[in-house]
Amino acid sequence: MTASKRLVLVTGASGFIGKTMVRALAANGWAVRGAARDPAAIPEAAGVERVVLPDLAREADWAPLVDGATHILHLAGIAHAPGHLPEDVYTRINRDVVGELASATRGRVERFVLISSVRAQAGLAADHVITEADPPQPTDVYGSSKLEAERLLAESGVPFTVLRPAVVYGRGVKGNIASLATLAQTPMPLPFGGLDNRRSLLALDNLASAIELALASPKAEGETFLVADTEPISVADLVTAMREGLGRPPHLLRVPTGAVKRLMATFGKEKEWERLSGNFVIDAGKLRAIGWDPRVKTYDGIAAMMRAPNGPAPNSLKT
Length: 319
Known about the structure:
Elements: E1 7-11, H1 16-27, E2 31-36, E3 48-52, H2 63-66, E4 71-74, H3 87-105, E5 111-115, H4 141-155, E6 160-165, E7 167-169, H5 175-184, E8 201-203, H6 204-216, E9 223-227, H7 235-245, H8 257-266, H9 270-277, H10 285-288, H11 298-307
Parallel strand pairs: 1-2, 1-4, 2-3, 4-5, 5-6, 6-9, 7-8
Helix pairs in contact: 1-6, 3-4, 7-11, 8-9
Protein backbone atom coordinates (compact mmCIF):
# COMPACT_ATOMS: atom_id res chain seq x y z
CA MET A 1 0.00 0.00 0.00
CA THR A 2 1.50 3.37 -0.96
CA ALA A 3 1.70 6.24 1.49
CA SER A 4 -0.89 8.18 -0.54
CA LYS A 5 -3.48 5.49 0.23
CA ARG A 6 -2.76 5.44 3.94
CA LEU A 7 -4.89 7.45 6.33
CA VAL A 8 -3.36 8.39 9.66
CA LEU A 9 -5.47 9.67 12.52
CA VAL A 10 -3.48 12.25 14.50
CA THR A 11 -4.90 13.07 17.93
CA GLY A 12 -3.79 16.33 19.51
CA ALA A 13 -3.27 17.72 16.01
CA SER A 14 -3.36 21.36 17.10
CA GLY A 15 -0.56 21.04 19.66
CA PHE A 16 3.14 21.85 19.54
CA ILE A 17 4.07 18.46 18.07
CA GLY A 18 0.73 17.83 16.35
CA LYS A 19 0.87 20.84 14.03
CA THR A 20 4.32 19.84 12.81
CA MET A 21 3.24 16.25 12.25
CA VAL A 22 0.11 17.19 10.30
CA ARG A 23 2.20 19.30 7.92
CA ALA A 24 5.00 16.76 7.62
CA LEU A 25 2.78 13.74 7.03
CA ALA A 26 0.62 15.56 4.48
CA ALA A 27 3.74 16.80 2.66
CA ASN A 28 5.03 13.22 2.46
CA GLY A 29 1.88 11.85 0.84
CA TRP A 30 -0.17 10.66 3.80
CA ALA A 31 -3.88 11.33 4.05
CA VAL A 32 -4.26 12.93 7.48
CA ARG A 33 -7.26 13.10 9.76
CA GLY A 34 -6.33 15.63 12.41
CA ALA A 35 -8.35 15.64 15.62
CA ALA A 36 -8.33 18.49 18.14
CA ARG A 37 -10.74 20.18 20.52
CA ASP A 38 -10.63 23.17 18.17
CA PRO A 39 -10.27 21.83 14.61
CA ALA A 40 -9.79 25.36 13.29
CA ALA A 41 -6.39 25.39 15.04
CA ILE A 42 -5.17 22.44 12.95
CA PRO A 43 -3.02 23.50 9.97
CA GLU A 44 -4.82 23.56 6.64
CA ALA A 45 -3.14 21.54 3.89
CA ALA A 46 -4.03 19.36 0.94
CA GLY A 47 -4.97 15.91 2.16
CA VAL A 48 -5.79 17.05 5.72
CA GLU A 49 -9.23 16.43 7.20
CA ARG A 50 -9.91 18.40 10.39
CA VAL A 51 -12.25 16.85 12.97
CA VAL A 52 -13.30 17.37 16.59
CA LEU A 53 -11.45 15.38 19.25
CA PRO A 54 -13.81 13.83 21.81
CA ASP A 55 -13.73 15.04 25.40
CA LEU A 56 -10.95 12.90 26.84
CA ALA A 57 -12.24 13.38 30.38
CA ARG A 58 -15.01 10.86 29.73
CA GLU A 59 -15.44 7.71 27.69
CA ALA A 60 -16.02 8.50 24.02
CA ASP A 61 -17.18 6.85 20.82
CA TRP A 62 -14.00 6.59 18.75
CA ALA A 63 -15.62 4.72 15.85
CA PRO A 64 -16.22 7.78 13.60
CA LEU A 65 -12.61 8.96 14.03
CA VAL A 66 -10.95 5.61 13.37
CA ASP A 67 -13.24 4.63 10.49
CA GLY A 68 -11.03 4.05 7.45
CA ALA A 69 -7.81 4.89 9.30
CA THR A 70 -4.84 2.61 8.61
CA HIS A 71 -2.55 4.22 11.18
CA ILE A 72 -2.92 6.02 14.51
CA LEU A 73 -0.58 8.68 15.91
CA HIS A 74 -1.69 9.41 19.46
CA LEU A 75 -0.35 12.70 20.79
CA ALA A 76 -3.25 13.95 22.90
CA GLY A 77 -2.75 13.94 26.65
CA ILE A 78 -1.71 15.97 29.67
CA ALA A 79 1.91 17.03 29.88
CA HIS A 80 2.66 20.33 31.63
CA ALA A 81 -0.52 21.46 33.36
CA PRO A 82 -0.62 24.64 35.49
CA GLY A 83 -1.10 23.92 39.17
CA HIS A 84 -1.72 20.45 40.51
CA LEU A 85 -4.25 18.15 38.90
CA PRO A 86 -5.81 15.19 40.70
CA GLU A 87 -4.11 11.87 40.00
CA ASP A 88 -7.28 10.42 38.50
CA VAL A 89 -7.24 13.12 35.78
CA TYR A 90 -3.79 12.00 34.61
CA THR A 91 -4.89 8.39 34.83
CA ARG A 92 -8.03 9.02 32.81
CA ILE A 93 -6.52 11.13 30.03
CA ASN A 94 -3.02 9.67 29.73
CA ARG A 95 -3.82 6.01 30.41
CA ASP A 96 -7.47 5.08 29.99
CA VAL A 97 -7.91 6.92 26.69
CA VAL A 98 -5.08 4.90 25.17
CA GLY A 99 -6.77 1.65 26.19
CA GLU A 100 -10.10 2.76 24.74
CA LEU A 101 -8.59 4.00 21.48
CA ALA A 102 -6.60 0.78 21.10
CA SER A 103 -9.75 -1.28 21.63
CA ALA A 104 -11.52 0.75 18.95
CA THR A 105 -8.73 0.11 16.45
CA ARG A 106 -8.06 -3.58 17.11
CA GLY A 107 -8.04 -5.46 13.81
CA ARG A 108 -8.44 -2.23 11.84
CA VAL A 109 -5.04 -0.51 11.73
CA GLU A 110 -1.55 -1.38 10.56
CA ARG A 111 0.24 0.58 13.29
CA PHE A 112 -0.63 2.53 16.44
CA VAL A 113 2.19 4.90 17.42
CA LEU A 114 1.98 6.16 20.99
CA ILE A 115 4.00 9.22 21.96
CA SER A 116 4.87 8.46 25.55
CA SER A 117 7.73 10.17 27.41
CA VAL A 118 11.15 9.44 28.82
CA ARG A 119 9.48 10.26 32.14
CA ALA A 120 7.81 6.83 31.87
CA GLN A 121 11.31 5.45 32.38
CA ALA A 122 13.17 7.86 34.65
CA GLY A 123 12.89 10.95 36.83
CA LEU A 124 14.47 14.36 36.35
CA ALA A 125 18.10 13.23 36.56
CA ALA A 126 20.13 10.05 36.19
CA ASP A 127 23.66 9.06 37.18
CA HIS A 128 24.10 6.84 34.12
CA VAL A 129 23.27 6.87 30.42
CA ILE A 130 19.62 5.86 30.00
CA THR A 131 18.72 3.06 27.58
CA GLU A 132 15.66 0.94 26.94
CA ALA A 133 17.32 -1.86 28.94
CA ASP A 134 16.88 0.10 32.17
CA PRO A 135 13.85 -0.95 34.26
CA PRO A 136 11.21 1.80 34.07
CA GLN A 137 11.19 3.89 37.24
CA PRO A 138 8.80 6.84 36.83
CA THR A 139 8.91 9.27 39.72
CA ASP A 140 5.57 11.08 39.38
CA VAL A 141 1.98 10.53 38.31
CA TYR A 142 2.68 11.87 34.82
CA GLY A 143 5.38 9.29 34.17
CA SER A 144 3.37 6.51 35.79
CA SER A 145 0.31 7.29 33.70
CA LYS A 146 2.42 7.17 30.53
CA LEU A 147 3.96 3.83 31.52
CA GLU A 148 0.53 2.36 32.23
CA ALA A 149 -0.69 3.58 28.84
CA GLU A 150 2.23 1.76 27.20
CA ARG A 151 1.24 -1.41 29.01
CA LEU A 152 -2.41 -1.18 27.92
CA LEU A 153 -1.36 -0.66 24.31
CA ALA A 154 1.07 -3.60 24.36
CA GLU A 155 -1.66 -5.86 25.76
CA SER A 156 -4.34 -4.69 23.30
CA GLY A 157 -3.32 -6.85 20.36
CA VAL A 158 -2.95 -3.81 18.10
CA PRO A 159 0.32 -3.52 16.08
CA PHE A 160 2.11 -0.75 17.95
CA THR A 161 5.25 1.29 18.47
CA VAL A 162 5.98 3.35 21.58
CA LEU A 163 8.26 6.40 21.43
CA ARG A 164 9.67 7.91 24.62
CA PRO A 165 11.00 11.33 23.60
CA ALA A 166 13.30 13.54 25.63
CA VAL A 167 12.28 17.15 26.20
CA VAL A 168 11.36 18.48 22.77
CA TYR A 169 12.38 21.93 21.54
CA GLY A 170 11.49 23.94 18.47
CA ARG A 171 9.43 26.84 17.25
CA GLY A 172 6.52 27.44 19.64
CA VAL A 173 7.98 25.37 22.49
CA LYS A 174 6.58 25.90 25.97
CA GLY A 175 7.57 24.72 29.44
CA ASN A 176 11.10 24.82 30.80
CA ILE A 177 12.86 25.40 27.48
CA ALA A 178 10.69 28.48 26.94
CA SER A 179 11.42 29.63 30.50
CA LEU A 180 15.16 29.39 29.89
CA ALA A 181 14.73 31.16 26.54
CA THR A 182 12.95 33.99 28.31
CA LEU A 183 15.99 34.42 30.56
CA ALA A 184 18.33 34.24 27.57
CA GLN A 185 16.41 37.04 25.88
CA THR A 186 17.20 39.44 28.73
CA PRO A 187 20.40 41.53 28.64
CA MET A 188 21.38 40.48 32.14
CA PRO A 189 24.35 38.18 32.84
CA LEU A 190 23.21 34.73 33.89
CA PRO A 191 24.87 32.58 36.60
CA PHE A 192 25.02 29.38 34.52
CA GLY A 193 28.64 29.46 33.33
CA GLY A 194 29.62 26.67 35.72
CA LEU A 195 26.78 24.30 34.79
CA ASP A 196 28.68 21.79 32.67
CA ASN A 197 26.29 18.90 33.32
CA ARG A 198 24.94 17.06 30.28
CA ARG A 199 21.28 16.73 29.31
CA SER A 200 19.69 15.15 26.24
CA LEU A 201 17.10 17.14 24.31
CA LEU A 202 15.18 16.44 21.11
CA ALA A 203 14.68 18.70 18.10
CA LEU A 204 11.10 18.78 16.85
CA ASP A 205 12.29 17.94 13.33
CA ASN A 206 14.20 14.93 14.66
CA LEU A 207 11.08 13.74 16.47
CA ALA A 208 9.05 14.13 13.28
CA SER A 209 11.41 11.85 11.37
CA ALA A 210 11.32 9.33 14.23
CA ILE A 211 7.52 9.28 14.14
CA GLU A 212 7.40 8.72 10.39
CA LEU A 213 9.82 5.81 10.78
CA ALA A 214 7.72 4.36 13.60
CA LEU A 215 4.57 4.56 11.49
CA ALA A 216 6.07 2.76 8.50
CA SER A 217 8.99 0.54 9.46
CA PRO A 218 8.32 -3.18 10.00
CA LYS A 219 11.34 -3.16 12.33
CA ALA A 220 9.55 -0.76 14.67
CA GLU A 221 6.49 -2.95 15.28
CA GLY A 222 6.05 -4.08 18.86
CA GLU A 223 9.03 -2.05 20.07
CA THR A 224 9.65 0.78 22.52
CA PHE A 225 12.26 3.41 21.65
CA LEU A 226 13.89 6.29 23.47
CA VAL A 227 14.22 9.35 21.22
CA ALA A 228 16.85 12.06 21.71
CA ASP A 229 19.35 14.11 19.72
CA THR A 230 22.68 12.40 19.17
CA GLU A 231 24.73 14.48 21.63
CA PRO A 232 23.68 15.90 25.02
CA ILE A 233 24.32 19.53 25.86
CA SER A 234 25.31 21.42 29.01
CA VAL A 235 23.13 24.19 30.40
CA ALA A 236 25.96 26.66 29.79
CA ASP A 237 26.13 25.65 26.12
CA LEU A 238 22.34 25.67 25.88
CA VAL A 239 22.14 29.31 26.97
CA THR A 240 25.13 30.15 24.79
CA ALA A 241 23.32 28.67 21.78
CA MET A 242 20.18 30.62 22.63
CA ARG A 243 22.05 33.88 22.79
CA GLU A 244 24.00 33.06 19.65
CA GLY A 245 20.67 32.64 17.89
CA LEU A 246 19.74 36.09 19.14
CA GLY A 247 23.03 37.53 17.89
CA ARG A 248 24.33 38.16 21.41
CA PRO A 249 27.42 37.10 23.37
CA PRO A 250 26.85 34.41 26.03
CA HIS A 251 27.41 36.75 29.00
CA LEU A 252 27.52 33.87 31.48
CA LEU A 253 28.99 34.09 34.97
CA ARG A 254 30.69 31.21 36.76
CA VAL A 255 28.89 31.16 40.11
CA PRO A 256 29.22 28.36 42.67
CA THR A 257 26.43 25.87 42.11
CA GLY A 258 25.38 26.10 45.76
CA ALA A 259 24.69 29.81 45.34
CA VAL A 260 22.63 29.19 42.18
CA LYS A 261 20.66 26.49 43.99
CA ARG A 262 19.87 28.85 46.87
CA LEU A 263 18.79 31.53 44.40
CA MET A 264 16.43 29.11 42.64
CA ALA A 265 15.03 27.95 45.99
CA THR A 266 14.34 31.57 46.96
CA PHE A 267 11.94 31.78 44.01
CA GLY A 268 10.41 28.36 44.72
CA LYS A 269 12.09 26.76 41.69
CA GLU A 270 13.64 23.67 43.25
CA LYS A 271 12.29 21.41 40.48
CA GLU A 272 13.71 23.69 37.82
CA TRP A 273 17.06 23.52 39.59
CA GLU A 274 16.97 19.72 39.48
CA ARG A 275 16.28 19.90 35.75
CA LEU A 276 19.09 22.40 35.22
CA SER A 277 21.79 20.92 37.42
CA GLY A 278 21.43 17.17 37.03
CA ASN A 279 22.73 14.88 34.31
CA PHE A 280 20.18 13.25 32.04
CA VAL A 281 21.80 11.54 29.06
CA ILE A 282 19.80 9.30 26.74
CA ASP A 283 21.21 6.79 24.27
CA ALA A 284 18.79 6.48 21.33
CA GLY A 285 20.99 3.95 19.56
CA LYS A 286 18.21 1.36 19.37
CA LEU A 287 16.14 3.64 17.14
CA ARG A 288 19.13 4.70 15.05
CA ALA A 289 19.90 1.00 14.50
CA ILE A 290 16.67 0.58 12.50
CA GLY A 291 17.35 3.59 10.27
CA TRP A 292 16.55 6.76 12.20
CA ASP A 293 18.82 9.64 11.18
CA PRO A 294 18.53 12.61 13.59
CA ARG A 295 20.08 15.32 11.44
CA VAL A 296 19.56 18.34 13.72
CA LYS A 297 22.33 18.84 16.28
CA THR A 298 21.15 20.28 19.57
CA TYR A 299 23.35 23.40 19.62
CA ASP A 300 22.45 24.31 16.04
CA GLY A 301 18.79 23.50 16.57
CA ILE A 302 18.53 25.69 19.67
CA ALA A 303 20.19 28.61 17.90
CA ALA A 304 17.85 28.18 14.91
CA MET A 305 14.82 28.09 17.22
CA MET A 306 15.79 31.45 18.69
CA ARG A 307 16.28 32.98 15.22
CA ALA A 308 12.88 31.80 13.99
CA PRO A 309 9.90 34.16 14.02
CA ASN A 310 7.74 33.31 17.02
CA GLY A 311 10.44 30.96 18.28
CA PRO A 312 9.84 29.83 21.84
CA ALA A 313 6.42 30.67 23.23
CA PRO A 314 6.36 33.69 25.54
CA ASN A 315 6.69 32.26 29.01
CA SER A 316 7.31 33.08 32.61
CA LEU A 317 9.21 30.78 34.91
CA LYS A 318 6.18 28.50 35.28
CA THR A 319 6.25 24.88 34.14
